[in-house]
Amino acid sequence: MVDRPLPRPSPLTEPFWNAARGHELHVQHCQDCGHYVFYPRYLCPDCGGDRLEWRRVSGRGTVFTYTVARRPTHPAFADRVPYVIAVVELEEGPKLTTNIVGIDPESVSIGLPVQATWEDTGDIVLVNFEPRAR
Q1: Considering only CA atoms, which of 11, 45, 16 is closest in space to residue 30?
Q2: Is there a contact between 57 and 90 (Cβ–Cβ < 8 Å)?
Q3: What are the Cα distances from residue 41, in Å, to 14, 81, 125, 134?
Q4: Is the distance from CB of 26 to CB of 55 less than 8 angstroms?
Q5: Is 58 exposed, middle or buried (0-12, 13-18, 19+ CB in 10 A)?
Q6: By three-state DSSP, how is residue 87 classified?
Q7: Phi/psi-derived region of residue 75, left when phi > 0, alpha when psi is between -120 and 50, beta in every other case
Q8: Which domains does the chain have, with CATH numbers?
């Protein structure tokens, strides 16, 4: 068995992973221009401001784009194929790269409404997305 690669939290990303442990989705929010920011950064990509705070967001979004992995992208994922790798656009605006779970990969489509769900790996809690009612 091959160990599954997992994210390594850094001082910048620690608030995101701490929120995920509590089954909450948090992203940065710029206090200067109101832009929601993901992936975590030190400066707002919209206005260049440095007053970014972490805020809880709804966890609702839509599939912006996706692909179905029919061959594992890493040996540890061999038992998961086929699986969906997607970019989800949150209602608040930012986009996250994630997996879509709880649905046949052939049923995923661009625009599919999704909701955050949590995968506890023992070391870290991952944020995936599953379909939600339209």
Answers
A1: 45
A2: yes
A3: 12, 32, 21, 32
A4: yes
A5: exposed
A6: strand
A7: alpha
A8: 9-57 (no CATH), 58-134 (2.40.50.840)
Per-residue confidence in pLDDT tens, the chain, 134 aa: 558 899 999 999 999 999 999 999 999 999 999 999 999 999 999 999 999 999 999 999 999 999 999 999 999 999 999 999 999 999 999 999 999 999 999 999 999 999 999 999 988 999 999 999 86
With beta carbons less than 8 A apart as the criterion, state whether 88 and 105 touch: no
Cβ neighbours of residue 128 closer than 8 Å, sequence gap 6 or more: 98, 99, 100, 101, 116, 117, 118, 119
Phi, then psi, of 67 in degrees rounded to 5: -145, 155
Residue 12 and residue 23: Cα distance in Å, rounded?
19
SS3 15: helix
User: Helix count (H) and strand count (E) of the chain?
Assistant: 1, 8
- Residue 75 contacts residue 69 (beta carbons within 8 Å): no
